[in-house]
Amino acid sequence: MIWDDKLNEECGIFGIYSPELDVARLTYYGLYALQHRGQESAGIAVSDGLSISVYKGMGLVSEVFSDESVTALKGKMAIGHVRYSTTGSSLVANAQPLVVHYQNGMMALAHNGNLTNAAELRGELGKDGAVFQTTVDSEVIINLIARYCRGTLEDAVTKTMIDLRGAYALVILAEDKLIGVRDPYGIRPLCIGQLGERYLFASESCALDGIGAKLIRDVEPGEIVTIDENGVHSRQGPASPQRAGCAFEYIYFARPDSTIDQLNVSEARRKMGIELARERPLDADIVIPVPDSGKAAALGYAHALGIPFEEGLVKNRYIGRTFIQPTQELREIAVRLKLNANASVLQGKRVVMVDDSIVRGTTSSKLVEMLRHAGAQEVHLLISSPPVLYPCFYGIDTAEREKLIATRLEIEGIRQYVGADSLHYLSSEGLMRALGNEPVCLACFNGDYPIAVPQEQGKYDFEQKGR
After folding, report:
1. pTM exceeding 0.85
2. Are residues 178 and 276 in the same domain?
């Protein structure tokens, strides 16, 4: 990837029940709106009430599907999935939704998140004769549901949730119903929308907006929501020990026009900028964002201090995701192709540049260098989140801990590495104020994991990443 100095979300999910409408096409549009959550593969499964059909492949939504392939998917309900994978697991076999035949018929599943006990569960299922065709932990989930399906599908899902550890948001498709599930901590997002008299699920509310649906509410932590011909039904699965929604959804992952757990993402980012202004007011000529996720925080900072906001970096929106970069030199060229400094704005100015995070530090150093070459007199780097110190085990592709720059260098060392005149990270307290002091997971900042993680820090018996 060109932009290899950011954390990556693992996937986005979508599901809709609407016998009167073209559910496959609506799912296609919903996945388009969620494309930022995963660019490796895409898939749609549709149920006509008797059987489930699926079409999936590697690539962007627009690359995987044609008008003909979408038109061929006929049914009254559908689920969809876009996926980001880690190195080594970018295989069509791992693309979702997963579809299986089991004793009660057919079932399809799409999953966002990561199980921390997947290797253990996979081993137990294997001893009982289970056969696996993928290397993703989503297959563990669908195997468990099928194993427990002696009564209703909802009963099987409840029993499965008791076994699962980690983060998960699921949409499950049967011949006659659609089910949405969120883990008891609510780490990964999932919301419910309404289109006319029918209902749907999506990872983010922006996918609802894209098809003209309205946001009803978020799926609660530990909740199992069923949509069928009789409407929406809810039951509580395992009790929620605490809420721990992912803070990085607000910092970077989610689209700014989404609302997650009743908090608008753009508003949260703007408040992060205001908190930065409170913690680190600077005497500067202009404030610029690193497009696009730094924009709202930069606006908040600029408005709070009365400093002009400018677009000092221009983003090239037509660089393909598969741009080849076989050498470090070409990777550096790729950064310049992705973003270009606007010299007319920067010349002779004292510049505050606002970004959402620093992971490895490579991109930040290139951007600072770019601003100086464009004539910036000073470059002050502000980050609208605390230093990333720990890996994530809940569905985010985090670099190995030794590659996280904040684990190797103190802030002054990072400042020297990136070449900025000053560097300030938003404090954890400032971040929490920006998020309304709502309970969120801050494990990547402080190592306080709400759910037990593998003791060997990511050494799994099989590839868990890449939902």
Report:
1. yes
2. no
Query: Where does the pLDDT of residue 362 fall: very low under 50, low under 70, confident under 90, or very high at 90 and above?
Result: confident
CATH number for the domain harbouring residue 211 = 3.60.20.10
261: left (phi over 0), alpha (psi -120 to 50) or beta: left
User: What's the N-to-C CA distance of the chain in angstroms?
Assistant: 18
Which amino acid, one-letter code, is at 218?
D
Tens of pLDDT along 269-292? 999 999 999 999 999 999 999 998
| 73 and 164 assigned to the same domain | yes
415 and 330, same structural domain?
Answer: yes
Q: What is the DSSP string of 26-45?
A: HHHHHHHHTGGG--SEEEEE
* Mean pLDDT of the 384-405 span: 84
Q: Are residues 320 and 216 in the same domain?
A: no
Residue 306 in contact with residue 266, Cβ under 8 Å? no
286 and 232 part of one domain: no
Return d(Cα 46, Cα 69) in angstroms, integer.
Answer: 12
Helices marked H in 284-361 — which ranges? 295-305, 328-338, 343-346
Owner of token pair 């069509």: 92
What's the rounded Cα separation, in Å, for the pair 237 and 231?
19
In the numeric block, which tokens belong to residue 332? 């550096």
- Percent of the chain residues topping a pLDDT of 70: 89
Spatial separation of the C-alpha atoms in residues 50 and 48, rounded to whole Å: 6
Residue 452: inside a domain, yes or no? no
Side chain identity at residue 404, one-letter code = L
pLDDT at 463: 38
| Contact in structure between 7 and 359 (CB atoms under 8 Å) | yes
Residue 149 and residue 78 in one domain: yes
Give how many domains the chain has, as a whole number: 2
In total, the chain counts a number of residues equal to 467
For this structure, is 11 an active site residue? yes
pLDDT band at 464 (very low <50, low <70, confident <90, very high): very low
